[in-house]
Amino acid sequence: MVAELINANPVVYERKERRDPEHPYSLEQLNVVTDDAIEVNDEKSHVRVTFTPTVEHCSMATIIGLCLRVKLIRSLPSRYKVDIRIAPGTHATEATVNKQLNDKERVAAALENPTLLEVIEDCLSPTFA
User: Which family is annotated (predicted)?
Assistant: First the structure.
């Protein structure tokens, strides 16, 4: 059941509709998220997305990760644990960003910030290019 949901995958299938917060391009066009960077374990109800920021010092890496997390949380059944990671060696503060993206309290606090939530919503809004 979830395999079909993932195959119509909210990260891969719709990524053309998600924009990079700093660029007018989609995450797909920038190779931030690729098909092979998404792991799904239906038996364990676990999804891991590993993304590659555009540059080693990408200031928007946390925002991109939050956008991916929000999209998955909204799209998957609640039983799924979502794990968002930066590809190893692709960001200067990889460990810090990974910790922030996978800490429930930090994510909840970030999503309570109206300005930050607006940026995330903009990132997730469809583009018609």
Answer: Belongs to the MIP18 family.
Over residues 84-107, the pLDDT tens digits come to: 999 999 999 999 999 999 999 999
Q: Beta strand 81-86 with 46-51: parallel, antiparallel or unpaired? A: parallel
Q: Which amino acid is at 9?
A: N
> Residue 11, Cβ neighbours under 10 Å: how many?
25
User: How many whole angstroms separate alpha carbon 118 and alpha carbon 82?
Assistant: 22
CB burial of residue 125 (10 Å; 0-12, 13-18, 19+): exposed
Q: How many CB atoms lie within 10 A of CB 90?
A: 17
pTM for this prediction: 0.79
Domain definitions of the chain by residue range: 35-124
Distance from C-alpha of 20 to C-alpha of 102, rounded to nearest angstrom:
20
